[in-house]
Design goal:
Layout lengths: L10 H31 E2 L3 H28 L24 E2 H29 L1 H22 L6
Parallel strand pairs: 1-2
Helix pairs in contact: 1-2, 1-3, 2-4, 3-4
Bound molecules: fe (ii) ion.
């Protein structure tokens, strides 16, 4: 039996899983960039709390992106972190310029909702092909969905 140089999955499975992780990586990088954009341009009475929470989101995205990219490499698939790759993001762009605290909280909730929706829609396929990668994405979603709740808690009661 020959020793496989990478995780014990077929080439087809590794390529498919790597493609899915790459797709989530792009959304994750964009989420982190949007968090910093809001962190800088925010204004209003909730500035302090949201400024810090947006930095938590940027840090969570940076860490998640690193984990997703390195999982691609562990599967023998190159990760693409170039600006050109970000064109594939599922997240709508944030508006230019200063933004009120309320609008920033709404925007963070909306972006995290899309992020969660897209990543969750890939879990079934990931689980069939590679439960280890699925577990990784579960962990990322656990953290991002907690942040979604924290942004949601900044909005007025409905
Ligand atoms: Fe800062």
């Amino acid at each position: 039996m020959t020793e496989a140089p990478v995780a014990a999955l077929s080439v087809d499975q590794r390529l498919a899983v790597g493609g899915t992780l790459q797709e989530i990586l792009v959304d994750t990088i964009d989420l982190g960039l949007q968090a910093k954009h809001l962190h800088w341009n925010l204004r209003g009475p909730m500035f302090h709390g949201l400024h810090l929470l947006l930095d938590d989101l940027a840090a969570a995205a940076a860490e998640a992106g690193d984990t997703l990219a390195e999982r691609c490499l562990a599967l023998g698939v190159a990760a693409d972190g170039r600006i050109s790759a970000l064109a594939g993001t599922h997240l709508p762009p944030p508006p230019e310029g200063r933004i009120s605290d309320q609008d920033a909280a709404d925007l963070a909730v909306a972006r995290l909702h899309v992020y969660s929706e897209v990543a969750r829609s890939r879990l079934g396929d990931l689980g069939l092909r590679d439960p280890v990668s699925q577990e990784l994405v579960n962990g990322v979603l656990m953290r991002m969905e907690k942040l979604l709740w924290m942004f949601e808690a900044h909005r007025p009661e409905v």
